[in-house]
């Protein structure tokens, strides 16, 4: 295992710091964009990094603002802020062509970043991608009490699988609404690979499949994994992730 790559920091706006780990090699550069509240030490992020090192490929994983060991409070984060982190990593760390690997919320951030850097982002590997989730998945499932709480307190706490609950702020929900991308064509023409669990309780496959209807690329493969959950982290899932990354690197090269 090579997951002990040294920790570094990028200077971000307002004195914030984005923590990252990277290894240099041949292109295209793979950039891991994690999910909501997850960090760069997750199983998929590190497994892919180990593979990249073995293959001599450029790879970057990082923690968004308010995530992991980056600075900032999670409750102060927004979708556009996290997408801006992806763009900064592309601009300041990545060399040459880029493939964004976006998991769940990271799929949304990746799609936003790809449309902002079309000259750099040449491929997308999306795992249970959740564009527009704040409104169309989260808000849609909230009780009236939760909606009233957001209006009154400006924040709603929802239990998570992490150490502390998800904190959905009014800013996050409003910013999410302003950055919807499933309601119009998503202009991206590079190869896109989507991995989705058929038994995902967080992002239903029917939901992520909507990306096929709006993305302009003709080179899109959508893989539905029978009994697959939201994390897609079993050994078979990780093998599939690596195979897909390998194939995408070949396509982009």
Using the CA coordinates, give the radius of gyration. Answer: 17 Å
**How many strands in all?**
10
Structural class: alpha/beta
The string of secondary-structure elements, in order, is: EEEHEHEHEHHEEHEHHEH
Order of strands across the biggest sheet?
1-2-4-3-5-6-9-10
Q: Share of helix among residues?
A: 25-40%
What does the largest sheet look like? 8 strands, mixed
Continuous helix count: 9
Alpha-carbon distance between the two ends: 26 Å
Q: Globular, elongated, flat, extended or rod-shaped: what is the shape?
A: globular
Average pLDDT across residues?
A: 95
> What proportion strand?
15-25%
Quaternary status: single chain
Low-confidence segments, given as residue ranges, are none
Question: Brief description of this entry?
Answer:
The chain has 253 residues and is an alpha/beta fold.
Write structural notes for this entry.
The protein has 253 residues and is of the alpha/beta class. The chain contains nine helices and ten strands. The strands form two sheets. The protein has an eight-stranded mixed β-sheet, with helices on both faces. Strands 7-8 form a two-stranded antiparallel ribbon. Helix 1 (43-55) links the parallel strand 3 and strand 4. The protein is globular. 42% of the residues are buried. The mean pLDDT is 95.
């Amino acid at each position: 295992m090579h997951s002990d790559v040294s920790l570094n920091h990028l200077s971000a706006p307002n004195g914030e710091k984005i923590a990252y780990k990277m290894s240099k090699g041949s292109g295209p550069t793979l950039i891991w964009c994690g999910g909501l509240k997850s960090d760069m030490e997750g199983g998929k992020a590190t497994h892919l990094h180990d593979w990249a090192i073995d293959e001599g490929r450029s790879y970057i994983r990082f923690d968004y603002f308010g995530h992991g060991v980056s600075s900032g409070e999670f409750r102060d984060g927004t979708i556009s802020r996290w997408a801006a982190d992806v763009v900064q990593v592309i601009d300041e760390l990545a060399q040459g062509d880029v493939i964004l690997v976006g998991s769940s919320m990271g799929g949304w951030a990746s799609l936003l970043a790809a449309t902002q850097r079309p000259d750099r982002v040449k491929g997308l590997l999306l795992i249970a991608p959740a564009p527009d989730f704040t409104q169309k998945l989260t808000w849609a499932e909230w009780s009236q009490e939760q909606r009233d709480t957001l209006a009154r307190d400006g924040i709603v706490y929802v239990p998570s699988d992490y150490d502390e609950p998800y904190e959905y702020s009014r800013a996050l929900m409003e910013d999410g609404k302003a950055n919807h991308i499933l309601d119009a064509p998503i202009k991206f023409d590079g190869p896109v690979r989507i991995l989705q669990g058929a038994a995902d309780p967080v992002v239903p496959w029917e939901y992520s499949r909507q990306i096929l209807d709006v993305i302009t690329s003709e080179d899109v493969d959508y893989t539905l994994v029978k009994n697959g959950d939201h994390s897609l982290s079993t050994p078979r899932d990780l093998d599939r992730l690596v195979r897909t990354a390998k194939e995408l690197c070949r396509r982009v090269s």
